[in-house]
Write a structure and sequence with these properties.
alpha/beta; 2 domains; homodimer; disordered C terminus
Chain lengths: 441, 441
């Protein structure tokens, strides 16, 4: 029988995260405090973030960072996640390429987001805070943090982007089952929300705005810290557990990827699967390609510019050196809510600048076409975000068909789409628009 | 670190199903053809079911039945499923009991149903049929068979119980993504459907009626066979892969269950986890308890009577020796659609008659209360059906708390509830009725 699914024995599950900053010849430029125009220090971030997260954010020297025992105990509930050889998809495409995917959809909350949520909630608990706030786009991050907070006995308040709150009511319910308080953003409960609602009464929200609201709530609430689901370096750090596992699993499969693909919102699932493999490009002369699949309607890597910009819409955060479409960019209402973010994290942006990372734009209809093909071939209905990675994988696999090359392609299945079925409904009934729009709720 | 999650190495994954009929001293009584009043022979079932399934149905002699290589190759996409020690739930209950669950929710379609769907679709393909019909209650079985049919290149038509079609639109979409045709039942497309709609125009359907419609379609359509998701002995046979894995995983954990619990609709997930352990009661003098958790509103094991009855509402099927509430019983509209069935399979009924199986009734509100507690403790939102098993587990664990005993309880988490969030919404908002009713859609 062909070997299809690779799971690491427990003793091989990573006990450390990989900090790629330590191996980068040119480090990412520092975040800047917009008030002082000076580089941000870890201490500057302590009021907002868990202390350990702030330290990790600025750490450019330690290659390996221990995963706390308490976090590993929770990882053990679902890790190692499977590495799967997608024989079904290969057959459907009639390609000589060897396609593998890392299946993060099997986490209890259905996506990779839990890898960082558990770490951030644990560190918040350790700091003695009682409440955590965050934003969520598609709801994957909000669900993950809601559960992580319930695990560590913290209260959780989530600002869910309004378009997603309406498109994906089940995600809101999931967060509520885990005990979280969920508010659609923009809301009237913060100054940032009020300002944007005054200017644009029908605003359907964006991750940038929801971040502003969550940050504002954290700053106004004693004993409350803020947690971010992507973009920042410590989030990508936590996600490297994906790539570290995949590296050993590819070894079990007896192959090494020529190409690694992930969808791209702020960069955390992309960095998570890529960075551990990229270290062999940086250190051992490997030539693996890394492809970020972003939505055509929010194309920061292919059409943004590299500059200092705010991480949120209202300008509460430090300025980050990033590929950006502008912090006030209002993305179209595509169903891949997790990709509706204006900028890319500092590490990924630096690597992109150096040509280490490629990027492709995927249109909404192409993403769902790819998702349906994958579902029928492999049985897993992918999240709209993950559909972008699948579409890019299919493009590469079809190039192999043309050239006759048996390249090894690995992509990250960041999550399942079981709570996004209304989007599939629209696609199957022909009513889904290609890049998303207001009517496409 | 505490060992929490047990996964079998590939070489220990079962290659045979366990046929408990071979080890039963008193075999289940035969099915009866209502026209001839004679026992049904395998050949009588060939027109309706895949040949191999019909043979398995009547097989009372072979203890072990090989899982075809082609089915094992598909099992390999998600099996072995994890056995998990529910430390979180134990802590929440403050019980000395050791609680384990077998997590069938990680299958691509989110439930145990795929174990039999893959087998039945494969056997249908082998018989040369092109189309398969079935019924589905909550949609778990329909989703599983839709995917299994797409895997083996078969067309699939599903009659989904109307209440569930309306309560769980996402499940319909899932089946459609896999390429199935989905019809709400009762429908006007069959005589059985027409008859019941004429008598009860607002009928919200039941599994019994949907079975009648699917059987009728199969009988009227050349090249079409029928597949059933529970009740019959060959379905439970396919599900024994659950218990066979769990047996080896409990060995890895160094324990043996005192009590095994599963929710109960027609008996397939219950039989699947129970029978392999029950063989040690039958053969080796073990005293493990087996508890079926059924809904208070559809209590065939606790309030039904043992007699010959039809498997479907219209009376198309052979008569089965079963605990039954009557084949025309119309269950209340609880969200656990998979448990809304009037009867219990022949094997389970015989074992129940002999006192090998206990049963408890769970009310709808208690089931969701248990489900929310489990979700917060373990991160997985259980299917409404599985909530019944959890509620029964909690009852047993609390008895242990009272007595101070550290009993080992194993339950089957038959599926996740991510597509049932509207039910959780109702529960959390206080609008869910205790046993379900027409208004509770």
């Amino acid at each position: 029988m062909r070997h299809k699914r690779f799971i690491l024995p427990e003793e091989l599950i990573p006990t450390q995260w990989y900090n790629i900053q330590a191996d980068m010849k040119t480090k990412p430029e520092p975040m800047i405090d917009p008030r002082t125009r000076k580089p941000v220090k870890a201490e500057d971030l302590y009021p907002l973030f868990a202390t350990a997260c702030a330290d990790q954010e600025l750490n450019q020297t330690d290659r390996w960072i221990d995963i706390p025992e308490e976090v590993r105990a929770k990882y053990a509930n679902y890790r190692c996640t499977p590495l799967v050889r997608a024989y079904g998809l290969e057959k459907a495409l009639d390609t000589p390429a060897h396609i593998y995917f890392k299946d993060e959809s099997v986490s209890p909350v259905g996506s990779h987001k839990l890898n960082s949520a558990l770490a951030q909630a644990y560190y918040c608990k350790k700091d003695g805070v009682t409440n955590v706030t965050t934003e969520t786009g598609a709801g994957q991050w909000g669900a993950a943090l809601s559960y992580a907070c319930s695990v560590f006995g913290l209260e959780c308040a989530v600002y869910q982007v309004k378009i997603s709150y309406n498109q994906k009511p089940y995600r809101r319910s999931i967060m509520q089952v885990f005990g979280a308080q969920v508010t659609p953003s923009p809301s009237m409960s913060t100054r940032a929300g009020k300002d944007i609602l005054t200017a644009m009464p029908n605003c359907q929200g964006s991750l940038g705005t929801a971040i502003s609201e969550a940050v504002e709530l954290a700053e106004m609430t004693p004993g409350c810290k803020y947690a971010l689901g992507s973009v920042l370096s410590h989030v990508s750090l936590h996600q490297t557990v994906i790539g570290l596992e995949a590296e050993k699993q590819m070894e079990m499969a007896g192959e090494y990827p020529d190409t690694i693909i992930a969808c791209f919102g702020g960069g955390s699932n992309f960095g998570g699967i890529s960075f551990p493999f990229m270290r062999h490009n940086l250190l051992d002369g490997r030539k693996t390609r890394f492809i970020a699949a972003e939505p055509a309607s929010c194309p920061k890597l292919t059409h943004g510019k590299f500059s200092y910009d705010y991480g949120d819409e209202a300008g509460y955060t430090p300025m980050i050196p990033m590929y950006t479409l502008g912090h006030d960019f209002q993305p179209a209402n595509i169903h891949a809510g997790g990709l509706r973010y204006h900028g890319a994290g500092a590490i990924v942006s630096q690597l992109r600048k150096e040509g280490m990372i490629e990027a492709v734009d995927i249109r909404q209809l192409d993403s769902f076409k790819a998702g349906c093909m994958f579902a029928r071939a492999e049985g897993i209905i992918p999240a709209p975000e993950s559909c972008h990675a699948i579409a890019a994988t299919i493009q590469e696999a079809l190039k192999c068909k043309e050239s006759g090359e048996s390249k090894v392609i690995l992509f990250n299945l960041s999550g399942h789409g079981l709570v996004d079925m209304s989007a599939y409904d629209q696609y199957l009934s022909g009513s889904l628009l290609d890049t998303g729009s207001q009517e496409n709720i």
